[in-house]
Amino acid sequence: AQSVTQPDIHITVSEGASLELRCNYSYGATPYLFWYVQSPGQGLQLLLKYFSGDTLVQGIKGFEAEFKRSQSSFNLRKPSVHWSDAAEYFCAVGAKWGGATNKLIFGTGTLLAVQP
Amino acid sequence: GAGVSQSPSNKVTEKGKDVELRCDPISGHTALYWYRQSLGQGLEFLIYFQGNSAPDKSGLPSDRFSAERTGGSVSTLTIQRTQQEDSAVYLCASSLELAAEQYFGPGTRLTVT
């Protein structure tokens, strides 16, 4: 069955430090992959997506992610974290079954705290 | 342009009552999705609408849940005879077409007392 694993429930980094959030997926074909961010009391904002092509994708707010098929991973990175990046981050895979649905399967999320 | 909007933002209801949650997708988006976010279950898919095709209801947790989409735009998620386990944030998303990225609304926080 399709699934997404985010091994880190909670991460704390210092402002200005680099960041990597891990995401592993299980899917029978080349998946559509997404990272979303959720601030407290807010909906989900799309950071970046991978559909095909270049395996290193750039997103908003200085984030990037790399698709590694051999490792079934799609890790999110940022070279220098800002205090405003504190939020919960969700990795998701877009799944298709049968005719048409592109429902998203989400990981359990990683809560990022940023220390001054 | 305007994003996905949802109403109400918060809803408190008594156990056994029916509730309706509304979603206005981004104009021109043909696909509309409902998800539920709860502490115990995380983010889970509920139902999907695409154009005039039959909706994919495979994620609805029970027959107390139903949804409709009128005129290919606004959608309403209805929960009948609410239970405490229905307490969650209900998120709506829309996308321009099949397999495109989904844009989420701010959600409706439902509390069943």
Highlighted features:
heterodimer, A: mainly beta, six-stranded mixed beta sheet, globular, B: 113 residues, mainly beta, four-stranded antiparallel beta sheet, 10 strands
Please give the share of residues in helix of chain A: under 10%
Strand content of chain A: over 45%
Helix amount of chain B, in percent? under 10%
Please give the alpha-carbon distance between the first and last residues of chain B: 37 Å
Biggest beta sheet attributes of chain A: 6 strands, mixed
SSE pattern of chain B, N- to C-terminal: EEEEEEEEEE
- Output the radius of gyration of chain B: 13 Å
Overall mean pLDDT of chain A stands at 91
Number of helices of chain A: 0
Oligomer: heterodimer
Low-confidence runs of at least 5 consecutive residues of chain B? none
Structural class of chain B: mainly beta
User: Gap between N and C termini of chain A, in Å?
Assistant: 41 Å
* Largest β-sheet summary of chain B: 6 strands, mixed
Calculate Rg of chain A over CA atoms. Answer: 14 Å
Shape of chain B: globular
**What is the total tally of β strands of chain A?**
12
Q: Element order, helices and strands of chain A?
A: EEEEEEEEEEEE
Global morphology of chain A: globular
